[in-house]
TrEMBL record:
Keywords: CBS domain. The keyword Ribosomal protein does not apply. SMART domains: CBS (SM00116). Residues 110-171 form the CBS domain. The keyword Zinc does not apply. Gene3D superfamilies: CBS-domain. This is CBS domain protein. InterPro entries: CBS_dom, CBS_dom_sf, Diverse_CBS-Domain.
C-alpha cells in the first residue's frame, strides 16, 4: 500500500478543463466542436412537459437546448431557450391557455423543420467549414445525423464553438452561429 499525502488548497484558485489542453482553431477538424452522443448522453425532455417548468429547469442547469421526445421515445424535435422564453409562454397564455397548459410540444421546433449535418461529411470538414455553412442560418444549435444507422449522432452548439475557440462572447447572450462568424471574421 502506498502512503499518499494530502495537500492544502489555499494557493489553488482555478480548475482546468479539456479546452486548456486541446487548442481548437478554425482549421481543426469539425468533430472537435461536436458533442458526440456516443460519448455524452443527449439532453432530452418529454414533449408534454409544461413550458414554464422546462424553462426553469434549463435556466437552472445552464442548458440552452434539449431534444424533445414523446412518451414512447419518439424523436419529436428540439426546444431551446430561443423558443422557450417568458414572452413566448405569455403569448400562448394570451391565446386562451392556462400557464400549466402550455407545453414544450406547443413551442418546440418540429423535426420536420430541422436541418442537420451528416456525420460522415463532418468527419472530413473543418470548424471553419461548419461556421461558414451555419452563419447563414442564424442558429444556435445544429443536430448531426448518422444517416447510415438512421439516428441522431450529436449536436453542434454555437456556445461550444465560441468556448473552444476562446472567443470573447458573453455566454449569457443569445449566441448564434451568425454571431460567432462575425467575431471570427471581424
Amino acid at each position: 500500500m502506498k502512503n499518499l499525502q494530502l495537500f492544502d488548497l489555499d494557493l489553488i484558485d482555478n480548475i482546468i478543463s479539456p479546452e486548456d489542453f486541446n487548442q481548437t482553431s478554425l482549421m481543426s477538424p469539425a468533430t472537435d466542436i461536436f458533442t458526440d452522443f456516443k460519448k455524452h448522453k443527449a439532453l432530452i425532455i418529454e414533449d408534454e412537459t409544461p413550458a414554464g417548468e422546462a424553462l426553469k429547469l434549463m435556466v437552472k442547469t445552464h442548458v440552452r437546448m434539449k431534444i424533445v421526445m414523446s412518451k414512447d421515445n419518439d424523436f419529436m424535435g428540439i426546444i431551446s431557450t430561443k423558443e422557450l422564453n417568458e414572452q413566448t409562454i405569455v403569448t400562448a397564455i394570451a391565446k386562451g391557455s392556462e400557464r400549466h397548459e402550455v407545453l414544450v410540444s406547443d413551442l418546440m421546433v418540429l423535426r420536420s423543420d430541422l436541418h442537420a449535418f451528416d456525420f460522415n461529411e463532418l468527419e472530413n470538414a473543418t470548424v471553419n467549414d461548419v461556421v461558414n455553412v451555419l452563419e447563414n442560418y442564424g442558429l444556435r444549435h445544429c443536430l448531426v445525423l448518422d444517416r447510415e444507422h438512421h439516428h441522431i449522432r450529436g449536436v453542434i452548439s454555437s456556445s461550444d464553438i465560441a468556448r473552444k475557440l476562446h472567443l470573447p462572447i458573453d455566454i449569457y447572450s443569445k449566441t448564434s452561429f451568425s454571431h460567432v462568424f462575425k467575431v471570427i471574421h471581424g
